């Protein structure tokens, strides 16, 4: 009985098992975000800002935003961006996702990426602007008096009448990242969506607080402007050394391929934030909040 050699299997209460360590899930190795090309809605809004309201027809107002197409310029932007992706990004894309909106579908197809198998995901849709989506700015102010003041007051928490706040959209984008980590850990993935949708990914992946995100939106610099067919690449791979692979996104590359002045991929480091705040740091963030009652002794 001193050795295992003479033991019968029935005499061994537990059989030794080989335990497999579950591999930690991370986000895709590279995540390529692309905004759709110029849509008819983009152009109609731009014309209205210049005083031309002729395109705000009954047919336009009765069409849901999801059905609006690209302009010829938007189609050209998508084609140029696709050529740029094929020539510039050294990645083998494993998964291709698009918003269900027509303008995003057109953009994805016109990128003409080799061997692409596009999959629709509803959670990539544009922010819902509710009852004000097809209204001019003057009509918004007239029909919903005080709306502009509410928007300035509430910031990223503001909700259009019958629509969706930036924070609500942020919540569904967080679910997108959970899905990508579960299904595409270590792979290279492309998402074709919308400006506000991309902005939520920038907050989540850049680990911005709500206050920092609001400041980013208010920044007039190019960082805050996601143009049509803007490309933002989040990478765990060092752009200077492909052998250097990190366990988080350390770099973000920005480019607007159809604009010669912005067509070169501009890599920027993503600051690594210390996890959490001390009690003192947390309280320091509350100092600027106004008081509405006299302080009691």
SSE order and pairing:
Layout (H helix, E strand, L loop, with lengths): L29 E6 L4 H10 L8 H4 L10 H17 L6 E4 L3 H9 L7 E3 L16 H7 L3 H8 L11 H18 L4 E6 L1 H11 L4 H9 L12 E5 L1 E2 L2 E5 L5 E5 L10 E4 L9 H6 L13
Parallel strand pairs: 1-4, 2-3, 2-4
Antiparallel strand pairs: 1-5, 5-8, 6-7, 8-9
What does this molecule look like?
With 297 residues, the protein is α/β, with parallel strands linked by helices. It has a single domain, classed as Phosphoglycerate mutase-like (Rossmann fold), CATH 3.40.50.1240. It is built from 10 helices and 9 strands. It has helices at 40-49, 58-61, 72-88, 102-110, 137-143, 147-154, 166-183, 195-205, 210-218, 279-284; strands at 30-35, 95-98, 118-120, 188-193, 231-235, 237-238, 241-245, 251-255, 266-269. The strands form 2 sheets. A 7-stranded mixed β-sheet has the order 3-2-4-1-5-8-9, with helices on both faces. Helix 4 links the parallel strand 2 (95-98) and strand 3 (118-120).
Q: Please describe the biggest sheet, giving its number of strands, its sense, and whether it closes into a barrel.
A: 7 strands, mixed
Helical content stands at: 25-40%
Amino- and carboxy-terminal Cα gap: 80 Å
Number of domains: 1
| Number of alpha- plus pi-helical segments | 10
């Amino acid at each position: 009985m001193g050795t295992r050699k003479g033991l019968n299997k029935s005499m061994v209460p537990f059989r030794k098992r080989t335990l497999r360590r579950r591999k930690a899930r991370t986000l895709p190795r590279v995540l390529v975000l692309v905004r759709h090309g110029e849509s008819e809605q983009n152009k109609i809004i731009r014309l209205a800002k210049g005083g031309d309201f002729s395109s705000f027809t009954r047919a336009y107002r009765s069409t849901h935003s999801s059905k609006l197409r690209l302009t010829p310029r938007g189609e050209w932007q998508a084609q140029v961006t696709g050529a740029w992706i094929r020539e510039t990004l050294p990645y083998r894309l494993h998964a291709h996702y698009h918003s269900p909106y027509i303008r995003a579908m057109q953009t994805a197809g016109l990128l003409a990426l080799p061997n692409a198998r596009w999959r629709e995901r509803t959670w990539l849709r544009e922010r819902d602007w509710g009852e004000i989506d097809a209204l001019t700015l003057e009509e918004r102010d007239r029909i919903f008096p005080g709306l502009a003041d509410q928007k300035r007051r509430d910031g990223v928490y503001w909700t259009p009448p019958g629509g969706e706040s930036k924070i609500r959209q942020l919540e569904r984008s967080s679910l997108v990242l959970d899905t990508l980590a579960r299904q595409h850990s270590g792979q290279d993935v492309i998402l074709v969506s919308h400006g506000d949708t991309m902005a939520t990914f920038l907050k989540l992946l850049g680990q911005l607080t709500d206050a920092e995100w609001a400041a980013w939106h208010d920044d007039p610099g190019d960082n805050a402007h996601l143009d049509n067919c803007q490309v933002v690449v989040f990478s765990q791979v060092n752009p200077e050394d492909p052998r250097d692979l990190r366990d988080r996104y350390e770099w973000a590359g920005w480019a607007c391929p159809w604009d010669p002045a912005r067509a070169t991929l501009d890599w920027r480091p993503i600051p690594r934030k210390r996890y959490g705040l001390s009690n003192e740091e947390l309280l320091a963030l509350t100092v600027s909040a106004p008081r509405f009652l006299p302080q009691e002794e």
